[in-house]
């Protein structure tokens, strides 16, 4: 099992924590990690775009002029795509972008992402993270003490002071143990988690 240092809010090491290999020491499956990111981003697309084809645009039932003898190119309808107000050639229609993954794949992808953070020494465990007031300056001081400029902060339970203090810092996001996802773990690079949050993640995903 891998061991990681446990730090306090001042950036000083206060102990060690043994990580469960069933969560933080699996073989990294890059394919499933990629699929999980694609699935998450695709799920955010609405798929409600719509434009009309020439068969759906109103009007244009009559041939604008006879086939021959006018000097014009032949035309069959004023609602053909080349006309102003005509239909769109390959018009987009509503569609579903969802990429499906089963539960086991999602769990393994998440564990692979967490393992990659451990392997790259980008998992920082805090003994606790409590702020007495909502103040961005205080949260920034904690991150500076940990020498982190962008991070995903994982909390075991919702802490209004921490969430609101971190909200206005660029490249920093807070998440609860039940809302973490592969995309955020990879996007924000360093994962800063409380000791209680790590224990909860191990309990849920081991």
Itemize the secondary structure elements and their pairings.
Elements: E1 3-7, E2 13-18, H1 21-24, H2 30-43, H3 103-119, E3 123-126, H4 136-145, E4 151-155, H5 160-166, E5 172-176, H6 182-187, E6 190-194, H7 195-205
Parallel strand pairs: 1-3, 3-6, 4-5, 4-6
Antiparallel strand pairs: 1-2
Helix pairs in contact: 2-3, 4-5
Structure notes:
With 206 residues, the chain is an alpha/beta fold. It has 7 helices and 6 strands. Strands 2-1-3-6-4-5 form a 6-stranded mixed sheet. Strand 1 and strand 2 (13-18) form a beta hairpin.
Mean pLDDT: 93
Which structural class fits the helix and strand makeup?
A: alpha/beta
Main pleated-sheet profile: 6 strands, mixed
> What is the N-to-C order of secondary-structure elements (H for helix, E for strand)?
EEHHHEHEHEHEH
Percent helix:
25-40%
Kindly summarize this structure in a few lines:
With 206 residues, the chain is of the alpha/beta class. Helix content is 33%, strand content 15%.
Protein traits:
206 residues, six-stranded mixed β-sheet, 33% helix, elongated
């Amino acid at each position: 099992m891998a061991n990681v240092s446990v730090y306090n809010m001042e950036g000083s090491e206060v102990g060690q924590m043994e990580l469960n290999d069933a969560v933080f020491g699996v073989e990294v499956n890059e394919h499933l990690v990629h699929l999980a990111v694609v699935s998450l981003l695709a799920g955010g697309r609405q798929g409600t775009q719509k434009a009309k084809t020439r068969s759906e645009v109103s009007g244009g039932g009559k041939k604008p002029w006879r086939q021959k003898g006018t000097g014009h190119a032949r035309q069959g309808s004023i609602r053909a795509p080349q006309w102003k107000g005509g239909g769109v050639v390959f018009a987009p229609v509503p569609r579903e972008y969802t990429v499906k993954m089963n539960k086991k794949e999602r769990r393994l992808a998440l564990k692979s992402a967490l393992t990659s953070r451990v392997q790259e020494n980008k998992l920082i465990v805090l003994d606790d993270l409590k702020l007495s007031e909502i103040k961005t300056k205080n949260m920034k001081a904690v991150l500076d003490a940990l020498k982190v400029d962008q991070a995903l902060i994982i909390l075991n339970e919702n802490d209004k002071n921490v969430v609101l203090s971190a909200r206005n810092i660029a490249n920093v996001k807070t998440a609860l143990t039940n809302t973490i996802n592969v995309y955020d773990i990879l996007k924000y690079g360093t994962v800063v988690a409380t000791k209680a949050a790590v224990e909860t993640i191990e309990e849920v995903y081991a």
